[in-house]
Every structure is written in C-alpha cells, then in structure tokens.
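During the no-cost extension, the postdoctoral fellow (Dr. R.K.) reprocessed legacy sequence entries with the updated structure-token encoder. One reprocessed record is reproduced below for audit purposes.
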Amino acid sequence: MAIKNMRVLAMVMAGGKGTRLFPLTQERAKPAVPFGGKYRIVDFVLSNLVNSGIYSTYVLTQFKAQSLMEHLKDGWRFGSMLRDQFVTIVPAQMRTGEEWYRGTADAIYQNVNLIKRFAPDMVLIFGADHVYRMDIRQMIDFHIKNKADVTVSALPVPLEEAGQFGIIQTDKKGRIEGFQEKPKKPIPMPNDPTKALISMGNYIFNTDFLIDVLEKDAKENTEHDFGKSILPSIYKKSRLFVYDFMTNNVPGASEIERGYWRDVGTIKTYWETNMDLRRIDSTFNLYNTKWPIRTASYGAPPAKFCYDKRGKRGSVINSVVSEGSIVTGANVQDSVLGRNVHINSGASIINSIIMDGVEIGEGCRINMAIIDKNVKIPPGTEIGYNYEEDKKKYFMDKESSIIVIPKAD
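Re-encoded structure tokens follow.
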C-alpha cells in the first residue's frame, strides 16, 4: 500500500445539525446519535480510518457538540507518546471572522492552520454521519495511481433514489466531467441507465492543491461548500477522479456487504439501517473481527434474560441486545437494545430501537418506536398500536409514522 510512504491527515466533518433526525438531534449533533445498540454514528468513519492505518485525525465539531466530545474523549484516546497518533476534537474557533462555518469548505479553510502545521502529503476530508466499512488505503492507492489532484468516493444508486445526493458524471477512465447537486432529474450512468453515480462526501486532496483552492474560494462569493461550489468550479481544469466504492475490498467482509453505505439522515433511514442488524444474515456484519467497529467501553456487565418472579419466561428473537441489559419475563422481537436497558415482566417490544438506560414497565406494548436514552415507560403503556392516540401523545415521524420518544435527563 502506497500509504506507507505518505504523510496523511484526516479531517472528519462532524458538525452537522441533523435536523431531519429530530428529536434524536434535539440535544446532540448527528454524528453523536447512538446506533446499533452500543455505537455512535461517528464510530464508523473513525474505525475505517484507524483500521486503514490512518492515525492522525482532526474531528471538526460545531452544533451541540458536548455529547460528541464526551464520547470521543471516552472512546478515541490512543494513549500514545507518538505525536502523529491522535484523534483531536476541533470546535469551531472563528479564526477567520465572527461567523460559524458557512459550508464544508469553509470549515476546512477556518482550520487550514492545522493542515499547514501537520504538513501532510494529502488530506482526507470525510463525513461523520454514514454507516459503512471502507479500506481507505485502496482509495489512496487509486488517487496516487491516477496522479489526481482530488479523488471523490462514489457509489451507483437507483435513479429514483439519486435525487437526494450530489450526482457525478465521469468519462470511461473515471475522470470527472460534471456535477449535479440534488437534481430532480439525475443524469444516469452511461453504462447503466437505471442508476446514477452519487458522491459519498469523502474526498482526498493533495495538500498544496487543497490550500490553493480554499484560499481562492474564501475570497469569492460562493456557498463555500465542496459539493456545491469547490468541485464544480475546478473539475474542467484540474485532475478530479471518482473512486468506485463498489471496488473496495474490506478484509473479512462477505460479498453481500460490498457497496454497503447508508446515509442515516432521516428517522426512516435511521430506523431501517438499525433494523438491518437484526438478522443472522445481516447485510452489514458487526461481527467482522478483521475490520472491527470500535467505540467507547463503559464496563457494563453481560446482558441477562430471566424468568420473572412468577416463573414466566420471555423470549428474545432476531434482536441485538447490548451489555448490561436485563429482559425479565418479557418478549423482544426484531429490535435493537442499547446498554443497561431493563424490560420488565409481560412487556412486548417489536420493531423498535431502545437506547441506553431505558426502563420499560410491566405489561407495556411497544411497536415501531425509537425510545431515546434514560426514558422510563410506565407500566401498561401502549405505543405503536393506535395511530390517532399516538399522534396526540408523542412525536411521530411524518414519513414513516415511527414514534420517537426524546432523551430524558
């Protein structure tokens, strides 16, 4: 791998508001939203970087960052004496004026001093709010082989889904020929009229080239965003290439996982992506020991499934259950349980996401719900069985009708 001879710096964009994930983002940034029982969304990009041998990472934060900063402090300290091995949080510092980040490019520009001080050969600019595995070394090799100024990771998706993403057009060698930003009518791929090539929001820049384009963009009246303004303005005169994510081979991953990438930007997609994890033949395998997803460890005891005091037996089927959780004489099916969840006798949990520290009282019936951290559900409560009543009592996602109970103090 060419990375052995290169000095590489990663800049992870973790400042997103995540407004479409409200109320899960009511008190936290989108990358800090829990996922899969024990993880946070940010853990996936950081795991990909570390597993790829990239150990120098700045995480750029902005909105409601406290929860994210605490998680990174708890789970992503290398404890090394080597100066080039770090995951460092960078809050918005307004170094160039009295404004918050005006776009993704402005976020990097406001922290260009960190890049100049580290003096890398190339800079990786990756998002923090997607669920996927990627061996980034292969993208770096592609970038070097093509003598690219910029490389953008991309993925073919069905045409009917592509309009919510940035669309890229390329020639036969993968060189970028055009951009569309969330178009109503995406231009299909030349070799497959049913699909379009979408940007994953992950970029590799040669350092000198990046600094030059950022300094020019800062002086102009643009949206100061890589996808909306930077890349469309430079592709005709510079060497911009697309790295096809479908060619990425992750150690230990099965063929069914190839190209797996989820933008968990809405309640519906967040719920669906968590539900991907339930089955024994899950498309995304959390149990790949050759490419582990790393996170903070809080030393909770093992999960436990018990008869209740009356000898009633419950069951847990097709579900993910995290450490410290206790299911007592209750039934859990097709659900994801976080840490230290307590589900009491006679309760029934179906098609739901239950986060850390939640207690479900006796006899509750929960269906198609997301219950955020530390919520106490009183005995006998029913959620997900009466549409009209639920709409009056709880937050209901308009797209999916999923009930979301916000985080408790």
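DSSP finds ten helices and 29 strands in the chain. The chain has a mean pLDDT of 92. The remaining legacy entries will be reprocessed before the final report is submitted.
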